[in-house]
Amino acid sequence: MQSSITNTPTRYGWAMIILHWLIGIIFIGQFVLGVVMVRIESQRMSFELIQLHKSFGFLLLGLIILRIAWRLGNATPPLPASVGTLERKTAPLAHFALYAFQIALPLSGWALVSVSTLEIPTMPFNQFVMPNLPLTDSDAAEGFWSAAHWYLAYAGIALVALHIVAALRHHFLLRDSVLKRIITPSSDGE
């Protein structure tokens, strides 16, 4: 049986699996990088890490938009019959919240660099200059977007941690297929 790029009624296809894990790794990596880059004493190293953080932020934004488009265009496998009513109602809300945070975080970071009075250009992976959002530069706006980005990051990583705990609960305690279907792709014959 050949694996499918698209989803089937029971499992996710390669496209969703790759996007899921790639976005997850980048999201967690961005959180770690964000914590480290503001604590480094070397201004040069801090500057380089901030540029890398901005680059991965734009990559994350593009990937999450692609993932949402792919999800809207493909059937999502339903939860196993063993999943209770409360979890069936909250799971879509949790996924929506994950998507919302994964969009809001890069956008808040983009807003932050756009309003910065330092006016340092953003060059994703040193390839091109990313234009700023049409926002007014000011210290007050920079303070607002900095705080928004920080709070969104910590709330987002807490939500990701909850998502991981829920997936591990399904795999090790409930022993259902919830985690397996985002690890092993669907097959054409399914």
TrEMBL record:
* Compartments reported by the entry: Cell membrane
Residue ranges of domain Cytochrome b561 bacterial/Ni-hydrogenase in the record: 11-184
Task: State the UniProt keywords alphabetically.
Answer: Cell membrane, Electron transport, Heme, Iron, Membrane, Metal-binding, Transmembrane, Transmembrane helix, Transport
Q: How does it sit in the membrane?
A: Multi-pass membrane protein
Taxonomic placement: Bacteria, Pseudomonadati, Pseudomonadota, Alphaproteobacteria, Hyphomicrobiales
Report the sequence similarity comment from the record: Belongs to the cytochrome b561 family.
The protein's name is: Cytochrome b561
Cofactor(s) in the UniProt record: heme b
Q: Which domain of life is it from?
A: Bacteria
Residue ranges annotated as transmembrane are 12-40, 52-70, 148-168
Q: What is its main location?
A: membrane
